[in-house]
Amino acid sequence: MISVFFAIQIVLAIILIILALLNKSSSMGFGTYASSNDSVFGAKGPMDFLTKATITVGFLLVLNTLTLVYLYNKQANTSVVDEVKVQKTTTAPKNVPSVPSIPSK
Asked: What secondary structure letter does DSSP report for 53?
């Protein structure tokens, strides 16, 4: 189960890096290159599609990280020693030699 979440973590990290590199920098031209081609809601939309996708993938990455932390912590609280069954014996073993007593004077 953990390996599936770990694989998802790697894929989400790669997608987030690609989306962050594809986003247009806000310092380039101070918004003079803004066009309605890359916007979901038109030229006056609050965020373009790549920004929304980056935020969504970033949120999924954080959520997946928290899930992995929970699963690793749950696994770390268990031990192999907890699974060992101990048999308790209530009777003394047979053929035990008796301890000699100290002679009194």
From this structure: H
Question: Model-level pTM greater than 0.85?
Answer: no
Provide the residue ranges of all domains of the chain, joining segments of one domain with +. Answer: 1-24+41-75
Q: Are 6 and 64 in contact (CB under 8 A)?
A: no
Nearest-angstrom CA–CA distance, 49 and 51: 5
Angle of CA points 43, 49, 17, to nearest 5°: 135
One-letter identity of residue 10: I
Q: pLDDT tens digits, residue range 18-30?
A: 998 888 765 554 4
Cα–Cα distance, 99 to 67 (Å, whole number): 61
